[in-house]
Design goal:
This protein has 336 residues and is α+β, with helices and mostly antiparallel strands. It is 30% helix and 33% strand. The protein contains ten helices and 18 strands. The strands form four sheets. Strands 9, 10, 13, 14, 15, 17 and 18 form a seven-stranded antiparallel β-sheet that branches. Strands 1-2-5-6-8-7 form a six-stranded antiparallel β-sheet. A three-stranded antiparallel β-sheet has the order 12-11-16, with no helix packed on it.
């Protein structure tokens, strides 16, 4: 009978029709879950990063007395910079390092240092730059990790050196400054880093520091036989939701080590935002400067900062004049 015969609904017959019904059934849950064009246009934006949703916190003024217990843990004296940064230097005076036939003074390129900053919410930020030998590196890293101290950079300041050394930037934010101090002290104890002591601030008498100041556009300062010209970024720099005080993780530092007869070795780094990087690199090479490393010091800084480390040897005043365009190419001012 014709009533028992399958009915044809078009090309392919009943089998094709059944397959279409089954495919539609399989797609139905997906179609139901997908937003309509109207819903898609009004969908809520992706969740903002935590640091954008939180109110920025500012550093607060402190005194040396506030850091007395931290100094005891660290094992030596520090100083207070701009009334907000408690800074302690750990120059690697134990190392006899040579780079490009220059005996590098510790304060030229081997100056480990850490800074502590108190914030309005009573928290404390630890940041620093630490020099370790290659033999010390892994144990130092392990100690940092045991104490939950972050590593934000691992890099070089010099192209060639004996012994081999590395530089690490460290970072931790917490509510107990003594815990931070004990953690970084434990990491230093994995190295032969000497205890901190006050540096010699006598101006080197074999450098024309006046000519360097005039050329660089900034008044420099002496530190254990090295002459330094320091610049800080003019912008407000933020790390996560913490406002960084000027100079913390955002300095350009030009260090001159006298070599006699007006000559100097320069080991320096220049702080830049992305739009400044290529121009600075071109100017450095134009000045016959050797490029060493281009990298970041932080992980969550805004604006994003880049640093180029470089090396040069020659007449100190001439080098300073050649480096002045590099300073002008960046949005910095003398540290003061």
């Amino acid at each position: 009978m014709t009533g028992d015969r399958p009915q044809h609904t078009g090309p392919g017959g009943a089998g094709t029709a059944r397959r279409r019904v089954m495919a539609a059934a399989a797609l139905a849950p997906l179609l139901a879950a997908a937003p309509s064009p109207a819903r898609a246009r009004t969908a809520a934006p992706a969740t903002e990063p935590v640091e954008l949703a939180q109110k920025l916190i500012e550093p607060v003024h402190t005194t040396l007395k506030d850091w007395k217990a931290v100094a005891k843990v660290l094992g030596g004296p520090g100083d207070l910079k701009r009334k907000v940064m408690y800074h302690t230097g750990f120059p690697r005076r134990d190392l006899r390092l040579v780079s490009h036939q220059v005996h590098v003074k510790p304060s030229l390129a081997l100056g480990s240092h850490v800074s502590f900053v108190r914030y309005s919410d009573r928290s404390t930020l630890l940041m620093g730059d630490v020099v370790v030998t290659e033999d010390e590196l892994q144990d130092f890293v392990d100690a940092l990790q045991r104490h939950r101290i972050g590593i934000t950079a691992l890099h070089k300041h010099l192209l060639a050196q004996r012994p081999d050394v590395w530089w690490l930037h460290v970072h931790k934010h917490g509510h107990d400054p003594l815990e931070l101090a004990r953690g970084i002290r434990a990491a230093f104890d994995e190295t032969a880093t000497p205890r901190p002591r006050s540096s010699d601030t006598a101006t080197p008498d074999d450098l024309d520091t006046g000519a360097i100041d005039d050329a660089m556009g900034a008044k420099g300062s002496a530190d254990d036989g090295i002459y330094k010209c320091i610049f800080v970024r003019k912008e407000k720099i933020v790390d996560g939701y913490m406002v960084l005080p000027p100079g913390l993780g955002s300095t350009s530092a030009f260090n001159f080590q006298p070599l006699g007869n007006g000559r100097a070795a320069v080991s320096a780094d220049c702080c830049m935002v992305a739009d400044e990087v290529q121009q600075v690199l071109r100017l450095l090479r134009k000045a016959d400067v050797k490029l060493v490393e281009l990298h970041n010091h932080g992980l969550r800084d805004k604006p994003r900062l880049f640093f180029v480390h470089f090396w040069a040897v020659g007449d100190a005043a001439r080098l300073a004049r050649a480096l002045r365009p590099v300073v002008r190419a960046t949005n910095v001012k003398p540290a003061g």
